[in-house]
Design a protein that fits this description.
TIM Barrel; 2 domains; 8-stranded mixed β-sheet; 8 strands
Amino acid sequence: MPSDCKRCNFDCIYCECGRNTDELESKKLPSRQKIYTALESKLISLHQNGILPDSITFAGNGEPTIHPAFSGIIEDTVWLRDQYALYSKISVLTNATMLHRNDIVNALKKTDMPILKFDSAIDETIELLNQPAKKVVVSQLIEQIKLLGEKCFVQTMFLQGTYREQTVDNTTPEELDAWEQAILAIRPQQVMIYTIDRNTPVDTLYKISGDKLREISGRIEKHGIATTVSE
């Protein structure tokens, strides 16, 4: 992703990077070669200083899998990791919307931690929370996530509030029942449960209590699926 702006096919109302704007969409993505050079230089420097990173993580100003060279970038990263930081993990934070493409699925399978955003199992809530550029059908999204098998990690942001006079709450009984069934269908290696931690571009959103997050976690752990909770 560019270092000076956000490029994403979601426009989440809680995104710490802010909302999308038309002018930022014209910004060029860094080339595969530029990413390779920067990563190699950093890993060599760390290696020379005896530092082993826990993870090489693709995240930040947008959606990594929309980069046209994403598959090649992951291939490069695996090779560089094996040369300079053999025991470091490779992680990708993604909204999972590009999993209809085999090359993206195969690239994510080469990583250690494909972390997939899944904020709701209800289509209308995804539309409200994530503001996708193209309509997301949850039933299709679940089937696409399942292509990664049990290796995948699921990450869900829980929050409440209002947005454009609509109620925002993905912790209602209806929401949690649907979400729990979706998690059981996916059966990820781990579910990461979290809430708002930083300022959001929409100022009428509120974090969920730690007690509620732990209650949600319990719904999943009783099925033998590991969770982490970040309050």
